[in-house]
Design goal:
- This is Secreted protein.
- The protein has one domain.
- Helices cover 8% and strands 56% of the residues.
- It has one helix and eight strands.
- It has one helix spanning 2-11; strands spanning 22-28, 31-40, 43-49, 56-64, 67-74, 77-85, 90-100, 113-118.
- It has an eight-stranded antiparallel barrel.
- The longest helix is centred in the N-terminal third of the chain and has 10 residues, at 2-11.
């Protein structure tokens, strides 16, 4: 069993990234959004501006290997997202859960995934 586990680990290694801090770009419903990510050791802050309605939200959470689980600390509602970094310049964000406050709506439904590209 250990040999099989070792073979799997060698074939599919986790990407332990040194630092993912920077400005990232994504597209949601045909609209370009920008995200700023700041990482220090195993902690991450993620902030995104919605250019349509001018609101922004900030999330924070922990980083383990190539994944970060983030929760809203400022914004119109509550949400949890999971970021998976496939390289130092590419990531995907999956919406684990989202509940908006009255008058707002979640841009994406639970389970939706978007791609992010680091621009600098």
């Amino acid at each position: 069993m250990r040999v099989i586990s070792l073979c799997i680990a060698l074939l599919f290694p986790a990407v332990a990234l040194a630092d993912t801090s920077g400005v990232w770009q994504t597209t949601i419903d045909g609209q370009t959004d920008f995200v700023t990510i700041h990482q220090k050791n195993d902690w991450m802050i993620y902030a995104q501006l919605d250019p349509v309605n001018g609101t922004w939200e900030a999330l924070e959470g922990s980083v383990t290997d190539n994944k970060a689980t983030l929760n809203v600390i400022y914004g119109p509602g509550t949400a949890t997202i999971e970021l998976t970094f496939t390289s130092e310049n590419e990531a995907s964000a999956t919406i684990v859960s989202c509940q908006s406050q009255p008058g707002f709506e979640c841009n994406l439904s639970d389970g939706a995934t978007i791609q992010l590209v680091k621009i600098f």
